[in-house]
Amino acid sequence: MAIVTSYDFESDTWTHHNSDTPTRAAWRAAVAEIATKAHEKLPECNGRIDSAVKIVLAGDVKLLADGTAQVASQSNGTTAYHVVNGHCDCRDYEKAPHNFCKHRLSAAIARRAQELTRAKLDAGASSQPTPTQASPAVPSTPLPEAPASVNVHVELAGRQVQLTLRDSDEGRLLQRLEAVLQRFPVAAKSAEDTTPRCPTHGPMKPSTKGKGWYCPAKLADGRWCNSK
Question: Using CA atoms, how far apart are residues 63 and 82, in angstroms rounded to an integer?
Answer without folding.
Answer: 10
